[in-house]
Amino acid sequence: MAEDLLQQLVNGVAWGGIYALIALGYTMVYGVLKLINFAHGEVYMVGAMTGYYAARSFGLAGAPSLLGLVATLAASMAVCALLAAIIERVAYRPLRSAPRLAPLITAIGVSLLLQNLGQLVFGADPKFFPPLLESRNVFEVGKLSVSNVQLAVLGTAILLMAALQWIVMRTRFGRAMRAVSFDAQAAALMGVPVDRVILGTFVLGAVLAAAAGVLVGLTNPKIDPLMGVLPGLKAFVAAVLGGIGNIPGAMVGGLLLGVIETFVSGYLSSTYRDAIAFVLLIAILLYKPTGLFGTTQTEKV
Amino acid sequence: MSSKRVAAFALVAIVLLALDAWLPSWLNPYYATIVTRIGIAVVAAVSLQLVNGFTGQFSIGHAGFMAVGAYTSAAFSVYVGAGWLESLLGLLPAPLARSLFYPLVLASGGLAAAVAGFVVGIPALRLRGDYLAIATLGFAEVIRIAILNVDAVGGARGFSIHAAEHPAADLRFEGFGAVYAVVVVTIVVVARLVYSSGGLSFRAVREDEVAATSIGIATTRIKVEAFVVASFFAGVAGALFAHSEGYVHTNSFAFLRSFEIVVFVVLGGLGSITGAVLAAAVLTAAPELLRGLGEWRMVLYSLLLIGTMLLRPQGLLGNREIDLGWLRKRFG
Lengths: 301, 332
What we know:
The structure holds two protein chains of two kinds.
Chain A: H1 2-33, H2 40-57, H3 66-92, H4 101-121, E1 127-128, E2 137-141, E3 144-147, H5 148-170, H6 172-182, H7 184-189, H8 194-219, E4 222-223, H9 229-242, H10 247-268, H11 273-287
Antiparallel strand pairs in A: 1-4, 2-3
Chain B: H1 3-26, H2 29-54, H3 62-91, H4 94-124, H5 129-148, E1 159-160, H6 177-194, H7 200-207, H8 209-214, H9 219-245, E2 247-248, H10 255-268, H11 273-289, H12 297-311, H13 324-331
Antiparallel strand pairs in B: 1-2
Helix pairs in contact in B: 1-6, 2-6, 2-9, 2-10, 2-11, 3-4, 3-5, 3-9, 4-9, 6-9, 10-11
């Protein structure tokens, strides 16, 4: 029983790491722009697709290796960074001074565009991600087992999150990002290149989403052009759970959501798996709308 | 009722009856389906305009209330209504029996959705802006997944609106009469609501909640009122959808549907009823008109959406209306 519980926890944490990576993109963009970037789930999908084609063209299908995984990750990140930059430039930047709902609609538009373009370019039928690592259990006690794939997923996720934390807290760009998130107008007056910082934030989020796409290919190899819709929405829930706009919040929210989902489908029923994220969302919003780590802002009259 | 109003009412009724009797006879069924869908989209869009455009609250869960209306009305039809319709058909000529029956079906969907709107609205409307948006999205998904797990309405198999023990009662709606009667009622109700002196409170809440409170507007009550009325019409739209298709599935009410309705409202122009009508009609027809492009049509549709929004960030009509005054200024 305890072993079973622990096993679910391990699976949940590995799955939650992927949510966390996607959630970070939502939360960072929300932080600087107050925009819910609904196209983010599709960036993750493109990340997985690029990973698939990259891995095949590198000839990794029959020869799994750690170096191959790194190369695939890099390729996928590069493509997604470019994609995010184009999206921001074309669909969001022209609407910077428009009513707040306008960029939300273009975000939905971009999301639909990528889904449909994806079905045309990649084909609507699911593809199977080549195994980039030879799956074996590196840790086994009784019924509890941890595979090297799970370790790789979690390790990569942690590494990337640590890198992100370093960028945000220790670099010039990170400081600029925090400044824009705090008050874009004041930041602009202090000489922060706001537009470039926003672009950089989108790119950073996309790089993490791309990694999530490749990592998901390792654990759930079946990928298709609509795969980004539900995980995208759930990662967004994870971001709200931790407090939208709050970077450590998104990490914790993602891990928490992964664990809870795994527990629900393991111990209750898998049909409620998709509902639990939203029930949790409502509970959090009603009880503490700013999320676990969010701070309330007083309203000036 | 003034004589002018009676005349207007009679005119609308005659036009609707004529549409109902005459259109299906020459319109091929494919176009007829599109015309019906446009009507349903208009009802959903205009009702959401009341919440998002006029009251300034941001809901992206309208499809959830459509789902409540669709499933409640479908269950009502199949388990209760079919027997009633059968006995009515025995007593009265068919068109009369049907026109007595349709309002009952629509009311069952609308009322159920209004109750759902009230239950969801009371806690959710305490939230503001994006948080409200996210909460409505969450509620809509929870409603959808909950319905998916109710076996009496078919669960994941979907629910066919057909009662085996009452073979004489065809529960599907025929023609456009019902749909366009609802379209007219929705537009009139929402317009009378927001363009009346009492309706100024909706816009006051939208413009500045604190100021509205300070002049004695019960902002929470106004918000809940808008939400409940909008949910009612969303439920009616759901009932229309269910009964014109003859089959419902929860997939039709996923968040993409909610997004679609929000797109109608924002693209039409926040705070414009005619804008919402226009956007709902154009965007419902567009994917069908683009069908000649084959697999590229949805790509073009999304590009169209992005392009229009970039060119007209305030929406097609902004917050203006195309009404008699506007027409007079233009052409009179």
